[in-house]
UniProtKB/TrEMBL annotation:
<feature type="transmembrane region" description="Helical">
    <location>
        <begin position="247"/>
        <end position="268"/>
    </location>
</feature>
<dbReference type="GO" id="GO:0016020">
    <property type="term" value="C:membrane"/>
</dbReference>
<feature type="transmembrane region" description="Helical">
    <location>
        <begin position="369"/>
        <end position="390"/>
    </location>
</feature>
<keyword id="KW-1133">Transmembrane helix</keyword>
<feature type="transmembrane region" description="Helical">
    <location>
        <begin position="482"/>
        <end position="505"/>
    </location>
</feature>
<dbReference type="GO" id="GO:0022857">
    <property type="term" value="F:transmembrane transporter activity"/>
</dbReference>
<dbReference type="InterPro" id="IPR036259">
    <property type="entry name" value="MFS_trans_sf"/>
</dbReference>
<feature type="transmembrane region" description="Helical">
    <location>
        <begin position="335"/>
        <end position="357"/>
    </location>
</feature>
<feature type="transmembrane region" description="Helical">
    <location>
        <begin position="179"/>
        <end position="200"/>
    </location>
</feature>
<keyword id="KW-0472">Membrane</keyword>
<dbReference type="InterPro" id="IPR020846">
    <property type="entry name" value="MFS_dom"/>
</dbReference>
<feature type="domain" description="Major facilitator superfamily (MFS) profile">
    <location>
        <begin position="84"/>
        <end position="510"/>
    </location>
</feature>
<protein>
    <submittedName>
        <fullName>MFS domain-containing protein</fullName>
    </submittedName>
</protein>
<feature type="transmembrane region" description="Helical">
    <location>
        <begin position="124"/>
        <end position="147"/>
    </location>
</feature>
<feature type="transmembrane region" description="Helical">
    <location>
        <begin position="154"/>
        <end position="173"/>
    </location>
</feature>
<dbReference type="Pfam" id="PF00083">
    <property type="entry name" value="Sugar_tr"/>
</dbReference>
<keyword id="KW-0812">Transmembrane</keyword>
Amino acid sequence: MTNDNISLENYNNDPCLGDDNELFDETTLPSTTKSLLKDSDTSVTLDFMESYNKKSDTICEEILEKLGSFNPYSLFIMLTMATLWGLAAMNLMISAFLVDPIYAQNSSNSIFSTFNLTDNNSHLATLFSSSFMFGSMFGGAIVPVLADYFGRQINVAWCTFIIGAAGCVISFVDKYYLILVLRFIQGFAFHGTISTNWVLSYESVSVQIRSFSALVFGVLWVVGYCIIAPLAYYFTNWRYLCFFTALPSLVFSFIIFLSIPESLNFLISKKKMKEIKMWLKNNKKFRKLFGKVDFPNIDNLLRAIPTCQDEPSLQNQETLSVGERMVKFFKTQKLLLLYIFIFTFIWATDTVIYYVLSFFSTNLSGNMYINYILSGLIECPSYLVVPLFLDYLGRRGLTFLMHFITAIALFLGVMIGQDQHIIYLLIWLIGKFCISCTFTSIFVYGSEIFPTSHRNTCLGICAVISRLGGAIAPYSKNLDTIWPKLSIVLFASMSLIAALLSLVLPETGKIKSLIRKKKENF
């Protein structure tokens, strides 16, 4: 799963953390809380505070709780947005087959033969993958800003439409450079179908089912990931494969335009009372379709919204320009700069290894379609075990262990070689499972380690820079022209370095439990 999958827009409400993941200024902590933290063995390296003011997200959660955890309208929104992850995976992972030389040899019409990408030009085929990644890098920096300004729903709908339309147009283009432009456009819109849609769902469902929704999103990502294999087997003409991979996104965009509302939290934060009332009325109508007539009084629900007041500290912060805030940040947050560097390296390592193990699973010995499907299915267990690992091993422990095992697995793969097909495949899948675990958990860790006032900035920097890992992943096979095992050795080394760097980071899981205990006793 790509880690664009959890938005950089709402890290103060990470789905895996709940309400007690806030990392604020320690000077505002009650004295009893400070004492509790000082008496513990945990070294607190960041500033903390507990905020008791009622914010828009709190009001939204209270309304959603009154509507019920398994409110049909919210579930419909969640399932629709989760389906987008599957469609996004299809548009991304099509590269695993289209730019594979072995697949091209068995195709009736390949991208290699159509554009004469042979001999000295064969490396240009890799641009089909990397142009998408470069587009994602730029889109990841711009799309969230547009979603914050214009809203989540319109952002998701247009991004889905753009990905689908651009993918369908690719099927009819006769110039390779135009295909690369269209792939860049697809990548640019990718963030809206993998991150903004998560935010829309997250802001429309109750707290009780957010962990469940994360599982649903992950499973549907794997479904979209794996379905590429039978499509590639059936459509041996690359134009048909591109068209029928993108067409579902194009069709689905109209469903989003017509049936999906704006997120409730966004409407509350913007004080759009008319739209909020319409959201609640539609919820009531949708509820009746399932035979549920009980519904809270809408007027009573609306009364809580005007009481939402912004904190003065946030108001004062908004008077600073973006440039002024960035200058102040880099001058005063030396420790955070170290954490940003480490997280960026870890994130980039996870990104490049994830895509290498995904894209090049078709190059393994044996049946390329089965190998590819297995590399997708191995992600499913990670969504189930990561919450347990986070609690048992801690954030730092999980990050270290999974990167260390990945490094060992890749080094073993170098020594064994593909001659031992079954063993090599098992090692490959172990590496894919471990890197999927770290990919899933890194947002939890980052959400806790960075303070709320800088969380969006810190994780935004890490995410944008780390996407370079995805952009260079398709080129990694070029290293094998120097030495056939050079690329795997490089990635194993990167994973080992990431494991060691993670030991520099503080353990936040224990701090989180301390704050939760304090809240329970407050």
